[in-house]
Design brief:
There is one protein chain. The protein is an alpha/beta fold and about 280 residues long. The protein has a single domain, classed as TIM Barrel. Helix content is about 40%, strand content about 10%. It has 8 helices and 9 strands. The protein has a 4-stranded parallel beta sheet, with helices on one face. Strands 1-2-4 form a 3-stranded parallel beta sheet. Helix 2 links the parallel strand 1 and strand 2. Helix 7 packs across helix 8. The chain is globular, with a radius of gyration of 18 Å. About 45% of the residues are buried.
């Protein structure tokens, strides 16, 4: 098992990890904390939840699958909106959802963004506002045209200039993009974390690829990327069971532990900012 960055799978930061054999009857009992780092649960801000009712339904579905904490990561498209207006818009949506969900048995919600890569992203000081919570981790989405040398330079600039480590969103989606193998080599060499979608294991063309990415050590996080309960529902529980059965419980347990580590990072960062 490979080591990469701060997170245990591909495997790094050797923290205790109990290997769990997942079944439908035991999954909620054995998972006490799990964080979903990629979701579109905020009402009316992107192609995710259309309104508050759908947002709450997604939160209920996530909680039923053992998710205790979730990062809301609405799409940020730099060609359509500046960062200040985006933050204002999603902040208002977050407040509405927080008020609706308060006092209910639902996952805790943190703010982030799914940031579409753009050239010279590492030169923007404002991009720090798009990180997960108050951490230095940012969910980065790539496009069909983004896998080129400029991408690697910009990721290096994100780290060096802004202190930001990107997490590559749904790594399995870029397999047909020119330069994909070069991208994987770069991510491995530079210890850049990546995420695969839980739904990918239930899609004919991506299940084998996601399995291989995990076994080859390129993946650190499993996330739902949920948009709605009908079209793109959360499948965290199903994916953990699939991974445990097909690849081994050490992988499913590792993804759970990585999510817990990220949650620790989020909470530590919030405490640091409060006491700064």
């Amino acid at each position: 098992m490979k080591r990469k960055g701060k997170f245990k799978y591909t495997v790094s930061r050797c923290l205790p990890c109990i290997f769990i054999e997942f079944t439908d009857n035991t999954i909620k009992r054995v998972i006490t904390i799990i964080l979903d780092i990629h979701s579109h649960i905020l009402p009316g801000v992107d192609d995710g939840a259309a309104d508050l009712d759908e947002s709450v339904k997604l939160l209920e579905a996530l909680f039923e699958q053992g998710v205790t904490d979730v990062v809301a990561t609405p799409h940020f498209y730099p060609m359509d909106e500046d960062i200040d207006s985006f933050k204002d818009r999603i902040g208002r949506a977050y407040l509405r959802l927080w008020e609706k969900a308060a006092g209910r048995n639902l996952p805790n919600i943190y703010l982030g963004a799914e940031v579409l890569y753009y050239r010279y992203i590492g030169n923007s000081d404002a991009v720090k506002e798009l990180c997960i919570g108050k951490t230095n981790y940012m969910l980065l989405e790539l496009s069909e045209n983004s896998v080129r040398n400029g991408l690697f330079e910009d990721i290096a600039a994100l780290r060096e200039n802004q202190g930001i480590t990107p997490i590559i969103a749904h790594l399995e989606r870029y397999s047909r993009v020119p330069g994909y193998k070069k991208l994987l080599k770069f991510l491995s060499q530079e210890k850049i974390p990546a995420q695969v979608n839980a739904s990918s294991f239930f899609q004919k063309n991506s299940a084998v690829l996601s399995e291989k990415l995990i076994k080859d050590g390129y993946v650190n996080f499993l996330a739902t990327d949920c948009h709605s309960c009908s079209a793109r529902p959360p499948l965290m529980k199903q994916a953990l069971m699939y991974i445990s059965e097909k690849l081994g419980s050490e992988y499913s347990s590792g993804f759970i532990r990585n999510s817990q580590i990220m949650l620790e990072v989020i909470k530590d960062s919030e405490n640091e900012k409060q006491h700064a």
